[in-house]
Structures are given as structure tokens and as C-alpha cells.
Design brief:
The chain has helices at residues 2-19, 38-45, 57-65, 110-124, 140-152, 197-205, 221-233, and strands at residues 28-32, 49-54, 71-74, 88-94, 125-135, 156-162, 171-177. By secondary structure, it is an alpha/beta fold. One of its GO terms (biological process) is rRNA (guanine-N7)-methylation.
Length: 253
């Protein structure tokens, strides 16, 4: 349904934001559990390249039909990530990694499959890059299992929980660093007493930009302003807003 698609693309956007990619060059990203390529659409839109892996041929068929720009690979990530070392500048995954906790076959051991996934992912990522995996954990044991295997494989980092006080909007992002560990990005919807006021302010302001379905109309002025505001929050250089921002240009012939 369109609501699912919308939540999916919001999470993709947030995951890419949490990757903290360099602004000045296109990157190659791995999308684990890429499905029909919705996250890939956003990655392409941002000017980056991607390869998607999924275990479902039906979903990948849909991606092919939709003519997504990324390359697609039919594979079970529990068997590992089959790419050369240091190939990717980052990895995202939306609502997929928790499936590795299920033992679908007698031979499946969730800790082993998770470790195989994380250790080969660690190798496939360039030093200094990140993996951001959004997941729906069934319980805290599952979260601990996933995190423990990631750390065993060499990653540093941890869980960023957006909107932790909201039952509906709460989202878990496992934010993993390769090599030098950085500070975890700030979660959305967590207001603290100190100088975090700008973030709290933005979180409340966001509602102004929404259309009826809860998301700004793509390429609208609000959508552009929202994106520029996100970029500013990431400390990136952004052109000043003017009355021309988001205004349609006359067609050229």
C-alpha cells in the first residue's frame, strides 16, 4: 500500500542521512534486502550508485520491471556478502536484518548466519565507512544477538533509536562504523535539556511541511526547504533560501 511505500522511503532517506556520505562525490552503496528497489530510488536521486541484494526473486522481478538504476543480486545474505574487500562506501538495509534471527531450516543457526553476514559485510566496506541497518526487533534478546554479532565481526557503533517515546514512530537504526569509531549520530525526537534546542525545534517544525499523507510533495518548495534544512543540520554548505527556491522554471526549447 502507499502508506507502506511512504514509510519505507522515509526510512531509506533517514538511513542514507545517517551514513554521513561525502557531499562532493558519488558513492557506491550496498542495499541489503533491497526488495523492489524503493531505497535504491532515493539513493539514485541523491546521485549515488548502488547494488541491491535480496533473497526474493519475486521482489527483484518487480525491481527489474520498475527499471531501477542499481544492479541486483539474488542471494541470501546469511551466506555472506560476495563482493571484493573495501568495495562499498556504505551499506543500508531497511527492515531486513531481523530475518536472519529466524532459523528457517534445520541447518540454520541464527548466530552463525548473523556473524557470517556481518564479518563479510565488514570486509566489503571501505575503511571509515558505515552501515546503517533499520530493523524491527522482536524483543531485546534479538537486538542483543544482532548487536553482539556485529561487534564480534569488528564493527563499532550502536543503536540509534528515533522517536523513542512514540509507539508508532519509534525506529531502530543499527549504526555501524568500519575502522575508526565515530560518535553515534543524534536520534530524532529525543529532546534533552542542554543546547539541543535547535534539534527539538526542527522536529516540531517538520509538521508544517507535510501534505495530507504526512510527506511533503516531492520537488515542492517545502520538500526542497526540508532537504536543505537537513543538509544544514549535517553541517553541509547549502545555498540560502530565496523567493525563487523551488520555483518552476520556464521550459527551454
Amino acid at each position: 500500500s502507499s502508506r507502506v511505500v511512504e514509510i519505507q522511503s522515509q526510512m531509506s532517506e533517514r538511513a542514507v542521512e545517517l551514513l554521513g556520505l561525502p557531499e562532493d562525490r558519488p558513492c557506491l552503496l550496498l542495499d541489503v534486502g533491497c526488495g523492489s528497489g524503493l531505497s535504491g530510488d532515493y539513493i539514485s536521486e541523491e546521485g549515488h550508485y548502488w547494488i541491491g541484494m535480496d533473497i526474493s526473486s519475486a521482489m527483484l522481478d518487480v525491481a527489474v520491471e520498475r527499471e531501477v538504476e542499481g544492479d541486483l543480486l539474488l542471494a541470501d545474505v546469511g551466506h555472506g556478502i560476495p563482493f571484493r574487500p573495501g568495495m562499498f562506501d556504505g551499506c543500508i538495509s531497511i527492515s531486513a536484518v531481523q530475518w536472519l534471527c529466524n532459523a528457517d531450516k534445520k541447518s540454520h543457526s541464527p548466530p552463525k548466519r548473523l556473524y557470517r553476514f556481518f564479518s563479510t559485510l565488514y570486509t566489503a566496506l571501505a575503511r571509515g565507512s558505515r552501515a546503517v541497518l533499520q530493523l524491527y526487533p522482536e524483543n531485546s534478546e534479538q537486538l542483543e544477538l544482532i548487536t553482539a554479532q556485529a561487534m564480534r565481526a569488528g564493527f563499532t557503533g550502536g543503536m540509534v533509536v528515533d522517536y523513542p517515546n512514540s509507539a508508532k514512530a519509534k525506529k531502530f537504526f543499527l549504526c555501524l562504523f568500519v575502522g575508526a569509531s565515530s560518535t553515534l549520530p543524534k536520534a530524532l525526537g529525543t529532546e534533552c535539556a542542554d543546547e539541543e534546542t535547535h534539534q527539538a525545534k526542527f522536529t516540531n517544525e517538520r509538521t508544517r511541511f507535510r501534505n495530507i499523507k504526512g510527506k511533503s510533495v516531492k520537488k515542492s518548495r517545502d520538500w526542497i526547504l526540508e532537504k536543505k534544512e537537513r543538509r544544514r543540520r549535517q553541517g553541509k554548505e547549502v545555498r540560502a533560501d530565496t523567493k525563487y527556491t523551488g520555483r518552476k522554471r520556464r521550459p527551454h526549447f
